[in-house]
Amino acid sequence: MTKTVLGSRSGDLCRVQLSKVLCFHELYFWPYSCDSKSMILIIWNSGKAEECARAIEHAMQEPVHLASTLHEGVERLRSGEFSAVVVDQWITEAEPEPTSVVFDHLGMAVPVFVNFGISGVERILRELRAALSRRGLETVLARHSARQALRDELKDDVTVLLLSCGVALEDPELDETTRRRLQTMEELAKHISDKLAMSHQEHAAAAGA
User: Fold this and answer.
1) Residue 110 exposure: Cα atoms within 13 Å on the Cβ side
2) Distance (Å, whole) CA 160 – CA 149
3) Residue 32: DSSP 8-state
4) Alpha-carbon distance 188 to 17, whole Å?
5) What does the alpha-carbon distance between residue 166 and residue 130 come to, in Å, rounded to a whole number?
6) Cβ atoms within 10 A of the Cβ of 143, count?
7) Which among 28, 64, 94, 101 has most CB atoms closer than 10 A?
8) Has residue 7 got a pLDDT over 50?
């Protein structure tokens, strides 16, 4: 009776551990890319703003929205997701307090401050592309760091699951149904362990390339 109870408890522990491993597994191997559309916001009060917006939209192949004031820019940021916010430096100097409110609502958008009075479209595009490139690199590095931390935690949990299943399967009084379930858990844990090892090798090879 004692061995049966212990075997049952071991099986329960394995199931709990397996649930945790599967949760981390889905997060780790979930693709980062998505099909969400990004937009660019320009905050500039000028009769030339629409012409500039059309040129940037054509060059960047992203929808461009206009706001003539910082207050209107904040409303735009509240209503949509933007990849970048191009702000006229003169507006930020004239309205420093609303500028801080814009920063509070940027979300994932990268701010780009330009002097529209002396900057042509080509210069604005260079600064915009450079800012987006930096943000993209920062995002990749952050994701890599988070992925590595998750891989390490998942690896530890898989090891615990394999050990727990191994201990439980040593119980000679396990009924056949429980034994088959534990063996299935053990096989799944081994499969995840192999995938983690392969993923680590691929990342190491990519880093060394």
Assistant:
1) 17
2) 17
3) S
4) 12
5) 54
6) 11
7) 64
8) no
Residue 114 in 3-state DSSP? strand
Residue type (1 letter), 143: R
Tell me: domain 40-135, CATH 3.40.50.2300, correct? yes
- What tokens were used for 16? 């709990």
DSSP per residue over 40-105, as a string? EEEE--STTHHHHHHHHHHHHTS-EEEESSHHHHHHHHHHS--SEEEEEHHHHHH-HHHHHHHHHT
Contact of 109 with 77, CB cutoff 8 Å: yes
Burial degree of 82 (CB within 10 A; 0-12, 13-18, 19+): buried
Who has greater pLDDT, 10 or 90? 90
C-alpha 147, offset from chain centre: 9
Contact in structure between 43 and 91 (CB atoms under 8 Å): yes
**Is 168 in contact with 14 (CB distance < 8 Å)?**
yes
Distance CA 56, CA 78 (A): 22
Instruction: Tell me phi and psi for residue 95, to 5 degrees.
Output: -130, 70
User: Residue 183 is encoded by which pair of tokens?
Assistant: 């063996």
Report yes or no: 116 and 85 within 8 Å, Cβ to Cβ. Answer: no
User: pLDDT for 118-174, tens place per residue?
Assistant: 888 999 999 999 999 998 888 878 777 777 777 777 788 888 888 888 888 888 888
Residues in contact with 191: Cβ distance below 8 Å, sequence separation at least 6, in sequence order: none
